[in-house]
Automatic annotation (TrEMBL):
Family: Belongs to the glycosyl hydrolase 43 family.
Taxonomic lineage of the native organism: Bacteria, Pseudomonadati, Bacteroidota, Flavobacteriia, Flavobacteriales
Name by which UniProt lists this protein: Glycosyl hydrolases family 43
Superkingdom of the organism of origin: Bacteria
This protein's UniProt keywords: Carbohydrate metabolism, Glycosidase, Hydrolase, Polysaccharide degradation, Xylan degradation
InterPro entries for the chain: Glyco_hydro_43, Glyco_hydro_beta-prop_sf, Glycosyl_Hydrlase_43_Enz
Length: 265
């Protein structure tokens, strides 16, 4: 009986904390300004999948997904529990201390081609070209298949307006747009896929190609950057017990890439 009472008290405390947290979040008005002197720098909402850029205004802009999964399920949750991820936010700063949360910039309810139940708004990727800001995002279509959508805005803080259809030829999760020195944009998405984007940044200019990264242990989170003429293709594997972040180096955006191992062993 004592054990049952204790468990009841513990569960009641957890529920009250969750309700309190939701009530606190509901009181926030945007844009919301806060100071970040420790990690994590965002504490007023639960965020994931940061995609960081320094745009032409010199500020650092961080685009994130938002996690609504209850704390009690996070550790043992099967992947489908994360259908509760929804509502992208963007944060900006000039000094890494003073931050602004510009609020929700896109939600599944604004995506015509997506599941009517919503959710499944996972890791986004931002880009800027020709005076327009682009937000590439994964979402499930009405046939329960992951596709890449794209939304646009004239301002880095949005709001972003989603295109009426997903990008044909895409699949999988975690899209990322890389723009090379010559202005050509590439879309990386899913399990080791890449394709040039058309000049409008809204469609693929070619059939997607599979990347040879010199390593098949790739699950998600593909990212591309360029340094001293070399292309760095990085990615994660959450099923790897010791090293989760890996990278490979190549001479062009398509690869092939030479596997270099974990980023931080």
């Amino acid at each position: 009986m004592i054990v049952r009472v204790k468990m009841f008290v513990v569960n009641l405390v957890v529920v009250l904390l969750m309700i309190s947290c939701k009530l606190e979040q509901s009181k926030i008005t945007y844009p919301y300004m806060f100071k970040a002197e420790t990690n994590p720098f965002v504490k007023h909402i639960r965020t994931a999948d940061p995609d960081a850029h320094v745009w032409k205004d010199g500020k650092l802009w961080v685009y994130t997904s938002q996690d609504h999964v209850p704390d009690s399920t996070l550790i043992t949750a099967p992947w489908h529990v994360y259908n509760k991820m929804d509502g992208y936010h963007v944060f900006s700063t000039e000094n890494m201390i003073d931050w602004t949360d510009h609020g929700e910039i896109l939600h599944s309810k604004n995506v015509e081609w997506g599941l009517k139940e919503g959710g499944f708004m996972w890791a986004p990727g931002g880009a800027y070209k020709n005076g327009i800001y682009y937000l590439y995002f994964p979402h499930m279509d009405k046939e329960n298949k992951f596709r890449t959508g794209v939304a646009t805005s004239k301002f880095p803080q949005g709001p972003f307006v989603a295109e009426p259809n997903f990008i044909e030829g895409t699949s999988g999760i975690d899209p990322m747009c890389f723009i090379d020195d010559d202005g050509q944009a590439y879309l990386y998405f899913g399990r080791m896929m890449v394709a040039k984007l058309s000049d409008d940044m809204l469609t693929l200019a070619e059939k997607p190609k599979r990347i040879n990264a010199g390593n098949e242990k790739i699950m998600e989170g593909a990212f591309m950057h360029k340094r001293n003429g070399k292309y760095y293709y990085s990615y994660t594997n959450h099923k790897e017990e010791i090293n989760h972040g890996f990278y490979s180096i190549g001479d062009n955006p398509y690869g092939p890439f030479e596997y270099k191992g974990p980023v931080n062993p």
